[in-house]
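Late entry, written up from scratch paper. The run itself happened at the end of the previous shift, but nothing got recorded in the book at the time, so transcribing now.
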Amino acid sequence: MKRPVLILVLTSLLASAGCTTVPPTNVHQPMTARPSARFDMPSGNGSIYQAASSRPLFEDRRARYVGDTITVKITESTTASTKSNNKLDKSNTASASITGLSKLPGKGLVGLDLGAESANAFSGKGEAANNNIFTGNMTVTVIDVMPNGNLLVSGEKQVAIGHEQEFVRISGVINPSFVDAFNTVESSKIADARFEYKSAGQISDGQVMGWLARFFLSVMPF
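Output as recorded:
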């Protein structure tokens, strides 16, 4: 490899190493939506009443259209545990003897005793526990309105602290009847909910096993 090409490759590797990689996500896409005009009427005509952005006099401010925002109260707390214990014992005994042979060859086997014993034992024990707590508030955007009126929402919050970036993502389906007068809804009332809290940066990269170590871990038989 020529020196200019080698310098170019090393420069690109260093540049990519210094960039923060956005972690992948499983939430519904897109994570935001631009509201569409509900009336085919021009806006900004100088009048007080604007049909494109008006709401009925007795209509509340709850989210119901694509592009509207809604606040989610995250109160996720899950606890799971499992415990198992297995035990198996097996024992076999067999014996045989030859006392006499009459008019048959092989009289040398007379008095031969045969005995066999076998024993198997198995014991297994397993235990697992998991405890997760996720709390906070986050505002998401309505990205689709289903035929029955349910709202598909999705959103992302990015927080940069030094060289580390935190990504909080939420998506799911909300029944409008669960939304209170303050345009908020509890996370426990979101169907098909997907919550993510991921980070990207030097601290996050330091917790990931290298690709070469993962390769040897997958091919080594022991």
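Residues 86-127 form one domain.
(Scratch paper discarded after transcription.)
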